[in-house]
Input
Amino acid sequence: MADIKPVATRPLPDLTEEDTRSFWAATNTQRFVYQQCGSCGMVVFYPRQHCTGCTTGRLEERTSVGKGTIYTYSVVRQSYHPFFRTQVPYVVAWIDLDEGPRFLSNVIGVTSPDLSLIGKRVEITWEGHEGVSIPLFKLI
Amino acid sequence: MGTQVRDAAIVGIHEFPSRDVKGRLSPLHIKAQSAARALDDAGLKWSDVDAIYDAGEGGGMLAGLTIAEYFGIRPNVIDTTAVGGSSYEFHAAHAKRDIAAGKAKVALLTYGSRAHSAAQRIGVGGRAAGRHPADNLDVFAGSTLVSNYALVAHRHMHQYGTTSAQLAEIPVATRYHAMRNPEAVQAMKDLEFLDIRETTVEDVLKSRMIADPLHLLECCMISDGGGAVVIASADVARNCRKKPVWILGSGEATKYPENGGDITISAAAQSGPSAFGEAGIQPSEIDIAMIYDSFSITVLTILEDLGFCPKGEGGRWVEGGILRFDHKGGPALNTDGGGLSSNHPGMRGIFLLIEAARQLRGESHSQVPGAQLAVAHGNGGMLGSRHAAGTIILGRD
Ligand SMILES: [Zn+2]
Output
């Protein structure tokens, strides 16, 4: 759409949102955090205030080592978004982190996205912004 | 069929004919015009309506209140379940329940949208950062609606060996039906489809890639439109103009991302058995499958999850055109042309009920002779992340 001006930055999260603000705060020290219940062991992700596995457990913050496996992916070839239209084609993927959390992100630096990426190993590469870092992934 | 209870039936239907209102009609106009035509179809009046079901897409402060006032009715039952494109299957399920409980006799479901006129880029536009925690975690990634569904398609291919050629069978079947439906052909003209004709698997594979592995012809249209459905108790239904189309069973479910979960299984795997169980029938008995066709993969996944074939075998099962109305061996799929080639104003679920009712009355443009049983399955939200699903089993009088 010619009437949409390109912008330079991807959309960034709301850093005040109550459930996710601790997740985003940890990205400033390049930590990918998730929650695990101290009672029943349930890994909870996205972050919440309560355990989804039991009613009494307290959630404890854990830090992922930042490695995982591509569960599935797509290559976006058309977007009208003022930032993403300048980025096509780019890879969107569900990543299964080794500790359990399943996370939607981009896999960057893929030169040949036509080859199947499912099952490929990836690790976090941080993209720094004012007040927040974004966990993107690259092939290991 | 021992458990079947014929206590509520679809007695009136209307599909708003235009897919491009050029911004001149509001969603409320479309809802009201459709409601009046559907009541006419049943031989009922506004004052007969005692239950209202509304997803709130018409706007206003309070969904049920807004629509009751606009229509000028005083319902005793007000249900504002809003689960996107599957809202109308939920509404039909709730209407049957409310009628069976003796709380209502005539239920009115309506839908109106001008998604096309308002130039909503539903498929490939950006999504706004929401205050919902899940949205706030993934808005940075730029996943479009199309890529969300593509995530399911790629995993399905990886897990079961499904091919793009197999997925293409679905839009080919729905286009085959659309070309027999004058309103669908007009819709494609109004929405400036190029080269409007029956398509082949090769046509689909040659259309441009929008988000791998989904091609343009595997994606639904964005139209204006709407419709209405009137559901009545057995005693009212017996005195309506047309033969009743009985609601025999229903099921509801949700699905959301879970660590280690299987993205190829949709909420239909939960709602389907509930609906078929209540109706006391098997998927193999179904003549008409009205399945929410936002994309090719939506239909393939849901056909498997409803039990038409074993999980993962959908690709091979749909080969050879078995979903066409004039082909034996499988149910006729989306005989109006579907969201892919006839009508998709954003929340298509009501049209699944409407075309299923046409088939069971013998009124479809792609009529299956003697059709007895239909399933209408709505999927709301997003197949690749979080969605709601409603399954309705319908039977001829
Ligand atoms: Zn717990």
The radius of gyration of chain B is 19 Å. Chain B has a mean pLDDT of 95. The longest strand of chain B covers residues 245-255. Chain B touches chain A at residues 121, 124-126, 129, 131, 133-134, 136-144, 146-147, 150-155, 158, 208-214, 257-261, 263, 385 (CB under 8 Å).
